[in-house]
Each structure stands twice: as C-alpha cells, then as structure tokens.
Design goal:
The complex is a heterodimer. Chain A is an alpha+beta fold. In chain A, 56% of the residues lie in helices and 17% in strands. Chain A has a 5-stranded antiparallel sheet with strand order 2-1-5-4-3. In chain A, strands 7-9-10-12-11 form a 5-stranded mixed sheet, covered by helices on one side. A two-stranded antiparallel ribbon of chain A has the order 6-8. The two termini of chain B are 23 Å apart. Classes of the chains: A alpha+beta, B alpha+beta.
C-alpha cells in the first residue's frame, strides 16, 4: 500500500493542511489588523498635527504658521515616522515644508492618500485653510512597511515551524498506526495463504487497535478450529464411509463372478453402478470440501502454464469427442500462465468439458478457448442454460433442467476452484448453447 | 449588520452612524436604571466616543472600559459636559476639517432648554435653522477653529452634554 493511500497519512496531511490554513489565516488577519490599526494611529497623529497648525493659523496668521512648520521640521524627533509638510498658496507656490509636489489630493474635502516621497511611501492629508492656502501634513509609512515585512517573516517562519512539527508528529503517529494495522493485515494474509498459525498477537489490554487485534486472533482461532473440524469430517467420510462402499463393490463383483444367472447378474450390475455413483458423489463432495478447506487462495501459488494444462487435457478428450461425433475445437493461445495449482485447474477444465460433452449431442460442436488474462472459455451448441438457472447451476446439487443426470456437483467444484484462484466462473448464452467463462475478477 | 442595514433601508430610515449612536446613548444614559446606563456605556465604547477636555469618562462611569480623552485634535465622536446658570451662556472652540461633515448636538438633561450657535473664526454662523433644536450640521469650507456657544434661556441652572464630530 502506498503511503498516500494510508488513512492515517491522509488524515495527517488533511490535519496539517487545516493547521497551515489556520496559521496563514491568522497571519493575514493579524497583519491586516496591525496595518490598519497603525495606519489609523498615523492618521490620528496627522490630524492632531493639522488641528494644532490650524490653531496657529487662526491665532497668528500665515507668518506664524510658516514658522511653526519650520520649527516642527527642525525639532522632529528621530526614530519615529518622518514628518512631512507642504504649505502652498492659492496658485500652488510652496510657502513652507519639506514636501515637494505630490499627486493631487482634494484639499477642499480634506482628502487622505498615499504618495511616494523622498522618505518613501507616505500617508498624507491635504486640507484647505482660510485664504486659499493648502496644508498637506503626512507621515512616512516606512516604519509601518518595515514592521509589516518583519511580521510577515515571523509569521512565515512560525507557519513553517508549525507545518514541520505537525507533519513530523503526524507522520510519526501515522507510521506507528500503519505498522500496527499492517500486523493485522499480515496475519490475515498469512492465514489466507494457508498458515493457520498466523496471528496478530497484539499486546493485552491497550487501545482500540489492541482490542481489534485480540478479536482478530480470537476469530482466526475459531476459523482454524472450523477448518480442522471440516477436515476431520472429510477424513471420516473418506475412511469410514467410502472404504466400506469400495468393499461392498468388491463383494458385488465377487458375487457377480460366481453367479451364472443373467437376471441376478443384471441386478448386481445395477447395484454396482449405484455403489459407484455413491462413491463418485462422495469423491465430488470431498473434492469440494478439501478445496474449500485447503486454506488460503492460490493467487500466490506456483506459476503454471495454463496453455500446457489445457492442451494436455484436450488431447485426452479428443478421442472421446471423435467417438461421440462431436466437433471438438481447440483454440489455445500458447504461453498463457497463471499462479495456482495445476491439479485443481485440470479438474476445473475437465469438469467444464465433461459438462459440455454431456449436453452436446452427436454432430454438435464443443470449443475450448484459452487466452491471456487468463481467460478460459468452454462453449457448446447444445440446449444451453435457461436464464433463471445460470447462477443456480453453480450451487451444489443443482442441475440444469435439461437433463437429470449427474449429482450436480461438477460446476459447484468449478466455481470453488475458480474462486480459490481469484477467478470468476459464469455462464452465458452462446445462441445456441452455453458458454462457460472463467476469468479474473 | 447586513440584516440591520436592510431592515433600516426597508423601513426608509437612515442607518444610525456613530454620532447618532453617541447622542442616543448619552440621552439614554441619563436614566436611573442601571441596565440602561450599562447599555449606554457599551454603546459609547463601541462608537469610540471620547470625553473632551476634563469631562468625565461617561462610558467608564456607567460601567464600560475607560477611554482616553481627546485633546487638541479633530474629533471622532467626542462629548463635553457643561452646566450653565439661568440666562447665561458658555462657549468653547473646536477645530473641524474642511470638506468633512461637522456635527454638533446638545443632549439636554431634565427639562432644560438650550440655544445653540456655531460660528467660524470670522463670526459667520454655520447653521441657523436647527440651532434651537440643539443640533447643528454643516460642511466647513476651511479647516479652522469654530466657536460653539450654548445659551440657557431658562432661569435655573441646567446641565448639558455636547456631542461633536
């Protein structure tokens, strides 16, 4: 599993992104509020200066006003934002101040604006005094700009530190969580592959994952017991039921050899056929049970050449097909490989071919196709499978309604083997006939 | 805020500004009810109203945080408390910025009446029609000192709060 696919890693990245957004949002608000507050303070300072100068103008006229402006420039305190003044007459001639021409500000409305000055960017207010004079008072924005730049650096470094800390802690926690979840998955994987001793073995007590691990182990214990019980039952059937039936068949054969009455011989033959039918039923059931209880899928099994397996099997079926008057067509692509167990795949193909030949009358055609994927197709042009039966025929003891022969276990075993190999088995209409397809999920 | 603005527009009313809120708060703060005084104090603090030249900080007195006084500056909403004897008058000066709306309102306490006059540094009246209602609203042509004069037409001493912006 890739790191990005991990829930814990994704949660860490989401949380980190949220934290980063929150820090950046705070930075924007903090810088914006600080800048607005400082700008408002600067404007209040300018207004206070204007009021003072307006008082000077009212008390002492333009002469005093020019003197006071010069005084203020001469006695300007160092360290603060530089003070800027410009007093002009009605034709725009500068009468006092240190400020050169500035972009037009509407003095009649005491407008406020920003302008570039030799002191840098400055906040200015222009206002009209009696007699057509225009007074512009300003303060340099350089300290404010420097402070904002300083704040931006501090907040950027804070954001980076927060991001690094959140990512480090989050990814460390995600890594630990991932390791513990991987132990659970590993236990399932090994158990699925046939290692019935595989357990998550979490520490006792502990957190939710430890409790989940204990549940996992308890269920694996239970599944192992069920597997062993099923095997025991299968072994019992094989040894306690199948063996007496074989003995019974032997005795029937012995009786048949000693008997000279044709009617009794016919009855003994039918009895032997019934015994063989029961034995084959047990064999089929045992096959299914053993396949299901073998433990684990075969997708991690040895690599087998499906083309070779199918070709060998087709060679065995070809004479029977010819004898039955069936056109047996083989389209087997060379070199198709898959992981699995050759014997089980052989059984799967054989069951499909048995099924096809069983429902194909003389003069019909059966086609076996093997293609990359792997994709295995057995197609006949017999009576086909009714739509309602296409899923049911893969269940145990279910037969097609077309004939009543067989135990109805062949296709059930096909599906069990297919599933163990990570494949699906299904049937579709071949118009006419049935097409059985086995391919990856 | 937006909802209040919409309601005010729907009702056809002019949205209240800081100056109006300060005038209303000072009028309400005269109430003897503590809750009304606390509400008025909060309104004064929220509007940024400041006491002018020695006047008590009404927001602090009525229960909100103390606000620094204004001195020698163009005002945001500011207020000054004045007591005037019967038939007497009081005056003070205030600088207003050219082209910026200037407003003066007198909040009368009790049954006191008042006559308000605002003149520029040339003695020219700035508002006449509404001065007897204790309100004056004008746009100064120049940035200069304006004289604000209150006259108590009654016979008894009366107290007023003058709000300027």
């Amino acid at each position: 599993m890739s790191q990005i696919a991990s829930i814990a890693v994704r949660q860490t990245l989401i949380s980190t992104t949220i934290v980063l957004c929150a820090v950046l949002g705070f930075a924007v608000v903090a810088i914006g509020t600080t800048a607005a507050s400082m700008r408002a303070d600067l404007l209040r300072t300018i207004d206070t200066d204007i009021v003072g100068l307006a008082d000077v103008m009212a008390g002492g006229g333009i002469t005093d006003l020019r003197l006071r402006i010069d005084d203020r420039l001469a006695l300007a305190p160092s360290g603060g934002p530089a003070a800027l003044y410009r007093l002009t007459d009605q034709v725009g001639t500068r009468l006092a101040g240190n400020l050169g021409p500035i972009p037009p500000l509407d003095a009649a409305r005491s407008a406020v604006g920003e302008a570039s000055t030799p002191e840098g960017l400055a906040l200015l207010r222009a206002t009209r005094l009696r007699g057509g004079l225009v007074l512009v008072v300003g303060r340099s924005l350089a300290p404010l700009t420097a402070l904002i730049a300083h704040l931006e650096w501090i907040l950027a470094l804070s954001a980076l530190a927060t991001l690094a800390a959140a990512l480090t802690v989050g990814l460390f926690a995600a890594g630990r969580l991932g390791t513990r979840v991987a132990r659970l998955n590993d236990a399932f994987d090994r158990f699925d592959a046939g290692d019935f001793a595989a357990r998550a073995a979490p520490r006792r007590g502990g957190d939710e994952l430890a409790q989940l691990g204990q549940h996992v182990d308890a269920h694996l214990d239970r599944i192992e017991q069920l597997f062993r019980a099923q095997r025991q039952i299968s072994d019992d059937i094989a040894h306690e039921l199948r063996t007496p039936l074989v003995h019974l068949d032997t005795r029937l054969l012995d009786a048949l050899e000693r008997n000279h009455d044709p009617a009794v011989a016919a009855s003994l033959d039918r009895a032997r056929a019934d015994v063989r039918s029961v034995v084959s039923l047990f064999d089929a059931l045992l096959d299914i049970a053993m396949t299901e209880s073998a433990g684990g899928g075969m997708t991690a099994g040895t690599r087998i050449d499906l083309s070779d397996v199918a070709s060998d099997l087709a060679e065995l079926y070809a004479p029977s097909a010819e004898e039955a008057g069936i056109d047996f067509v083989r389209r087997i692509a060379p070199g198709v490989e898959m992981r699995g167990e050759a014997m089980q795949i052989t059984r799967l193909i054989a069951n499909l071919l048995d099924n096809a030949f069983k429902y194909s009358p003389s003069g019909s055609r059966v086609r076996l196709t093997v293609a990359t994927g792997p994709r295995l197709v057995v197609e006949d042009n017999g009576p086909g499978v009714a739509l309602a039966d296409r899923e049911a025929i893969f269940e145990r003891f279910r037969r097609s309604t077309a004939t009543g022969n067989g135990h109805g276990l062949g296709l059930a075993l096909v599906r069990v083997i297919a599933v163990r190999h990570g494949l699906t088995a299904r049937v579709e209409d071949a118009a006419p006939g049935a097409r059985f397809i086995v391919e990856p999920v | 805020m937006i909802v209040m603005l919409i309601l005010a527009l729907v009702a056809g009313a002019e949205p209240a500004d800081d100056f109006t809120r300060v005038v209303d708060a000072i009028a309400r703060g005269g109430s003897a009810r503590p809750a009304a005084r606390r509400d008025a104090a909060r309104a004064l603090a929220a509007a940024g109203a400041h006491p002018v030249d020695g006047t008590h900080d009404l927001a602090a007195a009525w229960g909100a945080m103390r606000t620094p006084p204004y001195r020698d500056r163009a005002l945001g909403p500011g207020y000054r408390q004045i007591a005037i004897g019967g038939g007497s008058s009081a005056r003070f000066e205030q600088v207003f910025l050219a082209g910026q709306r200037a407003r003066v309102a007198v909040v009368m306490h009790g049954n006191a009446a008042v006559r308000l006059a605002v003149t520029d540094d040339d003695g020219q009246p700035q508002c006449g029609a509404r001065e007897h209602a204790g309100r004056c609203d004008w746009v100064p042509l120049w940035t200069t000192r304006y004289r604000i004069e209150l006259q108590n037409p009654g016979s008894a001493i009366a107290s007023y709060t003058v709000v300027v912006e």
